[in-house]
Amino acid sequence: MNRKTKEIFIKYLFLLFALVSIIVLGLIVFSLFREGLPLFSTVAVHDFLFGLEWYPTYDPPSFGIFPLIVGSLIVTAIATLISVPLGVLAAVYISEIAPQRVKEILKSAIELLAGLPSVVLGFFGMVIIAPWLQETFDLPTGLNIINASIILAVMAIPTISSISEDALYAVPREFKEASYALGATKFETIAKVIVPAALSGISTAIMLGMARAIGETMVVLMVAGGAAAIPESLFDSVRPMPASIAAEMGETPFRSAHYQALFATGIVLFLLTLAFNLIADYVSHRFRQTGSATL
Amino acid sequence: MKTSEAAGVRLMRRRYLKQTIFFTLVRASALLIVLALGGVLFHIFYHGISAISWEFITRPPTDSMTKGGILPAILGTIYLTVGAIAVGLPLGIASAIYLTEYAKQGRVIRLIKVGINCLAGVPSVVFGLFGLGFFVIFLGFGSSILSGSLTLGFLILPTIIGAAEEALKGVPQTFREASLSLGVSKWQTIYRIVLPNALPGILTGSILGIGRAAGETAPIMFTAAAYFTAKLPGSIFDEVMALPYHIYVLATAGTHIEATRPIQFGTVLVLVAVVLGIDLVAIVIRGYMRRNKRW
Known about the structure:
The complex is a heterodimer. Chain A is mainly α.
């Protein structure tokens, strides 16, 4: 093999390695569909998605995952409401206000927070926050929507704040200088120049934080309470999709309808997070800021 | 004249008052995040430290997991993590080499990057389903160290690609040009010049992914983790206990949940020490490398 063909061969070898991520994505779809789709030969798609009753072990069983979808969406929504202000404000603090030392400490703290295993945060919610909630608000159980949302928010904050910070950091210096030159205060510069200029990056951060929250498993498994019903208050228990999959997969017979229904729930969850990720990717690319010229 | 001056002063005061309020909010957000991390770590340390002893980390559990140590879970986590590195690190580095050294901006690279982002967003429980459907069932590896390591390896792949890309991009272009101008082939330039210079950066970046592999629960629940095994694993086709799953089992499924709280906190403390220890090493090395840049 001469040198040129060898180089070309190596190039295509590396291309193959680079395609592994896409191949794995394909294999994920293949496995989910292979195990999950057979369900729909006995259960209609509409009944599955919008059915109000999740009684997988009854006779006859009922596989309606609507309460699970609602559970997932509601804990994600509340977690977003908590984590977005905190995460974005922390990012503003790090990139615009904090002195160098504080900035480094805070960045490390956020990184460590991101590193905490989900089972540890779930355990914390179960053992420390749940009893406290139960006593303070005199509830039948502290394992509920609000508890799960708080913990999910803690998990989403590092994603939101670190990506927002990158976006704020990328705002061209001249913008700030121009704003100060016009006599704007630091707050006015941040609120009216820097944050709007970084908005696409911040939106991406929020989308990715939400994707993280909606797919998080151990926290909702341990802390959300596990009731497969549409909740009526924030102190009710719910059973988000990941919790249902993780809790029931170990107990169900191989390739039973219940097993297939859990894989089908996985398909729904996968498509939902895929949508979040694709939107985030689209926003960050479509509105990518490549200098002062694009604004 | 006088009155308009007074109005001007009032306006300035109001503008600065707004700024003060905003800065306070921003600082409070940052503080709250640090407090959340501190609170979690404090509780875990405070309740967990009394359970830690030499016996606890060197003995297997006894009396149906109500007494004894957690040695099999520690070993299982080490095996799974090493396995995940063996899968994820070479693939990740190879992908990054293609993306930074070979690919030209265009459709292919864009597609690969979207694929990597989507893979990074796949929920951990969906990885678990993928591992179950593909490695355990389709390839017939059963619930084993092999299946778990492969699942975790693909889970951390996007993190490692990101870290490796960053490190490869950090190697100055002049290094490559100098090598190529001496008539060295592209592959040899990458292998002899670029890779050695990027390696410290690749490794520290990857450590963060490795910490994630050690702490994940949902991906190993159906692919590798055993509720309890008396013997230590003898081959890669054996099931293992693992720290995160052990915590989940003790906290939710044991017969003596309240009585084994100290053991639960102890296990959490060990897991957090392992994961955050790994992360902290990465953060410190990275800080050191940034301060002592050679180029």
